[in-house]
Amino acid sequence: VQEKKIFMVQGPYPIIRSLLRGRGWVEWKAPSMDRQLEQQLLPSPWPPAGEAEEEEEEQCDEDPNGIHDLMSYLVRNRVPNFIWTNYLGAVDHKLLGQDHVVNHYARVGAFTTKEGLCLSLQNLPWIEQADPNTFFPRCYLLGTTGEREAFIDDFRLTAARSLLKLALEEAGNRLMGSQQPPGSNKGPGLHMCHDSHPMPSTAGPGSPLFPHLVEEALEVCEQHLGVLGHQDIDRRTPSPCRTCIDWDRFLRDYYCVAHEGARLALSGALQNRCQDLLQRLKEQLPQLSMEGKLNVWILKPGAESQGRGIVCATRLEEVLRLARGCTALSAREGKWWVVQKYVERLLTIFGTKFDIRQWFVVTDWKPLTVWFYRDCYLRFCSRPFSLHSLERARHLCNVSVQKWYKTSPDQDPRVPPDRIWSSKQFQAYLVQLGQADAWHQVMVPNMKAAILNALRSAQDQVGFRKGSFELYGADFLVGEDCQPWLLEINSSPTMSPSSAVTRRLCANVQRDTLRLVLDYKDNPTCSTGAFELIYKE
Q1: pTM of the prediction?
Q2: For 237-247, how does the pLDDT look when each residue is reduced to its tens digit (9 = 90+)?
Q3: What are the chain's domains?
Q4: 66 contacts 31 by C-beta, under 8 angstroms
Q5: Is the dihedral of CA 341, 346, 350, 354 positive or negative?
């Protein structure tokens, strides 16, 4: 009591409990737990029931002499000095004095929810000289009219750029130029694509379209480039492109090319224009290289975690239809849905999508103080990556999603059975790819920068409390060019091991977090394990 070594743990954190007991701390338990302890400490005239026997056996394994339970009983009228819980709302605020340490801050939803992160990063260019489009796939809140219209503009412009890429891809696959495509001597016909209007072409699947589609895409992209050249700090998609063409018809034609195998007729002159325009767009649009050609977007509930409710879509009407249903439900619950550009051109391992779970700790907000964990882990999907099949098993790497799927027979056998890799295994793989420097020179520095920018964008909204701290888990995808893309930041990242790798790493990060928040403030020369101080304001 005099040393202020009374702690409370709420949630599934046996490692924290064990580590603190090993440091000589005594656990404080809620009053409901006191009654259970009293029953255990007093002799009972009859044996406990079956369930209680199992619980008692588990308790005996952790506390064979009952000493920890006895100490907890003796400090029941005190208040804990250190609180580790899975969410702040679970803590009785009467327990929070000025000198008490708790592992959460208030109002962190400004960057730990998809909705909050989307809104906060929109304001980043006003706070820092940083562009969120360089590390965070653009996203929109579909519950507001302005955001929904901005998304529609973005979807259309992305479709136009994607069509130029498809045209160049086709030009590279077959001989093009001013000559007519093979089969065109049969005379023009009407080729009906699914959900599309009749288009002049030769009959049969995979038949060519007239060049008007590429010319329209070029016109749209030229106008967009002109707007980008005069754009101010508000990097919103411009609205003038809404009236350029008949967008409903254009998108139907684009779907036929992108998803149904219709072909494009591309002259040499058009091919040169496409190449030149895409190169100029690349200089203005940091996300052009990750967009791909199929215009895939991902729809997410704004305040959920563990992959709940997430779907992928490739058609504008499909996204808006899903959003209408979702938004009506969310409005009643006070939540929003976000739609985010899917990273189509991503790095895969053995043909399988993965993401990176990266931990960091904030020990202060004034001044902002951030510690980055040097060890992290990768999470694999259970089926090979494909943009032509948008099922969750191929696209959502969350362990909570993938645990429901068996590994598919066509999965590469080199993918680990537990679908987890350590960052050291990943670095060894990068060496095999000839990218030995990518981890330390590209991925890690850019992950650090993305995390810091996200925190700075939300700093003024967080409920600051001196003496508190919080451990977060950031999720990243990696592009083909090894550029990491921040997807989300999680408060209370899971510490439940799903593999041998996470069993070791989760135990280590909890041990090192305690070193950081209990030892470092009194002894700055102490070991902080794998934590590295990356920022102090």
Answers
A1: 0.85
A2: 445 455 568 99
A3: 1-31+62-100 (no CATH), 109-135+345-536 (3.30.470.20), 138-174+209-342 (no CATH)
A4: no
A5: negative
